[in-house]
From TrEMBL:
A Pfam match: Lactamase_B
Disordered, as annotated region: 162-196
Full protein name: Putative sulfatase
Documented EC number(s): 3.1.6.-
GO molecular function annotation: linear primary-alkylsulfatase activity; protein dimerization activity
Taxon lineage: Bacteria, Pseudomonadati, Planctomycetota, Planctomycetia, Pirellulales
Annotated signal peptide: 1-32
Sequence ranges of Polar residues compositional bias: 167-177
Enzyme class: hydrolase
Keywords: Hydrolase, Signal
Length: 466
């Protein structure tokens, strides 16, 4: 055990050094935006890899967290006559490897499994931890509501999920997923799921399992069915996906129901009020030490609330979501905190989601109440600049100047024109997407740009909707 502790101390020191480097790399990054020079973007994403260093972290006496056995974390608490498992990864293959690693520290039977929420990467491998003895399985009353009730759009969500996480990217294109490594084995998704047998009531639950005192606190945030787990004697807090080392994914570009941002901030605030000595995130490395853990949670809650408050203030003076997405920023004193850099969540995406969640799609401007149909708008844009050839030249000029977003938007106009070179428009869009991807340190954005470019290039997308 002493040798393991020495190893973990060394690793922690290495991670701290890496974080200082990371802060240096982000100097000068535009707040609220995630586009930087390509070499800087790549260095930042590579630096974030330290959060996925595979291994078992001994976070407290008899408390262990397995990092990077899949995308999420799983943890084991060793009690008197058994162990408790918190979250169970994606499927039996990844979970069985984590379970085997845990057995180096205890061979006691599993007495309880706790699901912090119902996202598939936290619940799919439970069977791999269970032996002959049937454990209690704890979850919230609303367990299973993580994705809302929008099953009707599952077909397109699945495609967008693949793009967001870069599941089809080649090794040369992959970096990571912001809060998880790339290239996870997802072939057995959910095959080890075991249904909950104990419901945590809305006012929480205090109980003892295997001699370990546990407190369950309902904590809606990334999902409505989330809870966090508090060990009052050990001062260890298991946050689930309401906290990880990145600005939070207040909106996922794969498509989600509205994530109540205000609830999320308040839930993290409750965690901070406990002043934990260790916070174990749903993804990325645990944060150890009372000051570090408590400060991280306080900062996280404040950052979320600030984005919400700035958005609401802007809404109430009549600003629309696109304007606000460029104006709302992480507070200056928080913007370079390593756990608030926008590797996974994005402030602009969050702002648009808050706007839609509070007011719906309409921005209040009568100009946008009944906008022109895209084909008609494209024709009028063409007429405005003197014809299809001139619009095409403007598109090519934007690409040549590395004005990738403008090239992208112009290509979407050119594609609608019957007399346009649509093959050229497609090529410009592909190059512009890859140009944007190279400058992105937000992993979902980067993965989506690259995935979409590949789909365009391979012909998977139609002429109309590319």
């Amino acid at each position: 055990m002493n040798r393991n502790k020495i190893t973990l101390t060394f690793r922690a020191s290495s991670r701290a050094a890496g974080l200082f480097c990371l802060l240096a790399l982000t100097a000068g990054v535009a707040r609220g935006q995630t586009q930087v020079k390509p070499d800087t973007a790549l260095r930042m994403l590579n630096a974030q890899q330290q959060q996925f260093e595979k291994g078992i972290v001994n976070v407290a006496d008899n408390v262990f967290t397995a990092v990077s056995y899949h995308g999420a974390n799983t943890s084991m608490i060793v009690g008197t006559d058994g162990v408790i498992i918190i979250d169970t990864l994606f499927g039996p293959a990844s979970a069985s490897k984590a379970a085997e690693a845990f057995r180096q520290y205890s061979d006691k039977p599993v007495k309880a499994i706790i699901y912090t929420h119902s996202h598939g990467d936290h619940i799919g491998g439970a069977s791999a931890f269970v032996g002959d003895e049937k454990p209690k399985i704890f979850a919230t009353k609303s367990f299973g509501s993580a994705e809302g009730v929008n099953k009707a759009v599952d077909p397109v969500k699945q495609k967008r999920n693949i793009r967001q996480f870069g599941r089809n990217l080649s090794p040369s294109e992959s970096t990571n997923r912001g809060v998880a490594p790339a290239g996870t084995d997802d072939s057995d998704r959910g095959k080890g799921f075991l249904p909950p047998s104990v419901t945590v009531p809305n006012d929480g639950l205090k109980t003892t399992v295997a001699g370990i005192e546990l407190e369950f606190v309902i904590a809606p945030g990334e999902t409505d069915d989330a809870l966090f787990v508090w060990l009052p004697k050990e001062k260890v807090l298991f946050a689930g996906d309401n906290f990880y080392s990145s600005f939070p994914n207040l909106y996922a570009i794969r498509g989600t129901a509205y994530r109540d941002v205000l609830n999320w901030s308040e839930s993290v605030g409750k965690m901070a009020a406990l002043k934990p000595h260790v916070v174990v995130p749903g993804h990325t490395m645990p944060i150890q030490g009372q000051q570090a853990a408590t400060t991280a949670l306080s900062d996280y809650s404040e950052a979320i609330r600030s984005v919400y408050d700035q958005t609401v203030r802007g809404i109430n003076v009549g600003k629309g979501p696109n304007q606000l997405a460029h104006e709302v920023k992480i507070p200056e004193h928080l913007k370079n905190k390593p756990y608030l850099i926008q590797f996974y969540g994005s402030v602009p995406h969050a702002v648009r989601a808050i706007y839609a969640g509070l007011l719906g799609w309409y921005d209040g401007n009568p100009t946008t109440l009944n906008p022109l149909e895209p084909r008609i708008k494209a024709q009028k844009m063409s007429e405005l600049v003197g014809g299809t050839q001139q619009l095409t030249e403007q598109m090519q000029s934007a690409l040549a100047k590395h004005d990738y977003q403008w090239a992208l938007e112009l290509s979407d106009h050119v594609k609608w024109l019957d007399d346009a070179d649509r093959t050229l428009a497609r090529k410009v869009k592909i190059e512009a997407l890859r140009g944007l991807a190279a400058r992105e340190y937000n992993a979902p954005n980067r993965n989506y740009y690259l995935s979409y470019a590949n789909e365009l290039e391979s012909g998977q997308l139609s002429e109309v909707w590319f």
